[in-house]
Amino acid sequence: MRRSAQVIAIVVAASVIFGAATSQAGYKMEVNENSWISLGMGMRAHVGAQQTDSSDGWEKSLAFDNGRIYINGGIVEGLTFEFNTDVTNNGGGGSATDVVMLDAIAKFEFSEAFNIWAGRMLPPSDRANLSGPYFLNTWNFPAGGTFGPHRYTSIHAGRDDGAAIWGQFQGGKFKYQVGVFQGNGNSESPNFAGRLTLNLLDPEPGYYNSSTYFGTKDIFAIGVVYQVQSGGADSPFVAAVPEVPYDVGPPVVVPVAGSPEVAATTGTFSGWNVDILFEKNLGDSVGTVTLDGAVYGYSNDGGAGAGASDGLGFFTLGGFMLPGKVGVGPFKGNPQATVRYEQYRNDITDVTGDRIDAALNWILDGHNAYLSLNYGKVLDTDQQEIILGMQFQY
Q1: Domain 13-240+253-393 architecture
Q2: Could you count the other beta carbons within 10 Å of the beta carbon of residue 82?
Q3: Three-state SS for 275?
Q4: In angstroms, rounded to a whole number, what is the distance separating the alpha carbons of residues 150 and 312?
Q5: String of DSSP letters for 2-14
Q6: Rounded distance, CA 136 to CA 338, Å?
């Protein structure tokens, strides 16, 4: 109860602050062009029902998915910061009622082509991760685990501790991002991560991206990612046991992996992906088409440790948004339909998992306000869900 009260107090206090700021200077307060602070907030929640392999029927679901407070600011010329918090219903480094640090980034901005970011942040990774749940083109984030291809290491919500150098050219037509991060904490070596992005139509300026722009941009973007960490596979191997002659002493008990007697070693983790986003506004009388997809490959040196996997996965998504708004009174938005299929094959367990999600969305104000009616099913199982999700941010 105490933690719940703390969360409510924080949200109420933030609402008061935002309300005061709105009446005076919007969400941004400036001392001068280099010294300023901005405040924002976001929330996601859903109602629905799920069915699992072990259940006899559908189980209701009414959940607060997460809430975030965004704080950005400038200190002096060329030095800015970003600090975001997260309250999540999925744990994420704490219990369901804990406020956890999402981002804490110091940003040294030398030029458009050269910047240094350091702290807790999103490493160079795939488009979905650099979009996050609030800027995706469908409600559910690409799955990990058995049934999905998304399995880059992170501390919480895709974030990791480290630093990156990044830059862009021609306003975001081409971007590079390279950095070193903690990765698997069991390794003494850092995780090296890099991403290159080429935009053949409209540019995407900045470190982050979206997975849809709802027709405000025409996008044909190709991204390539590679991550590698020596000792980052979390896959212990049994050390070689020397042969013992049969006539020397009692039988020898061979220790198993993970026991103190074994000098367990850890393999190298490597992961890569190629992602492509095509989005085209076909005109005010037609609508906007979205095609999104990515291919992922992972190697953990063939290890069988917890979470280790060698394998290949992908997802593909198609969407279409109608041009006309529908609704009642001030609540009018664009209808949008999306379908996504994702698959991952684990070469160690020889198991292939796949999932499909189909959604009808009502886009009230882009990523700031929309509703999503989503059906998801893990194929060849009884696992399925129907949810009505709502997202609001300011």
Answers
A1: Beta Barrel (2.40)
A2: 20
A3: strand
A4: 10
A5: HHHHHHHHHHHHH
A6: 11
* pLDDT (tens digit per residue) in 166-202: 999 999 999 999 999 999 888 889 999 999 999 999 9
Tokens for 137, please give them. Answer: 């083109």
In tens, the pLDDT along 223-260 reads: 999 999 988 886 443 333 333 332 333 333 333 334 44
Domain residue extents for the chain: 13-240+253-393
Cα–Cα dist 88/67, whole Å: 7
Which secondary-structure segment (H or E) carries 128? Answer: helix 127-131
Instruction: Check residue 234 and give its pLDDT.
Output: 61
Q: Report the percent of the chain where pLDDT is more than 90.
A: 60
First to last CA, the chain: 28
- CA 102/CA 140 separation, integer angstroms: 19
CA count, 13 A, side-chain hemisphere, 259 = 9
Element (H, E) at 292: strand 288-299
Q: What is the pTM of this model?
A: 0.83
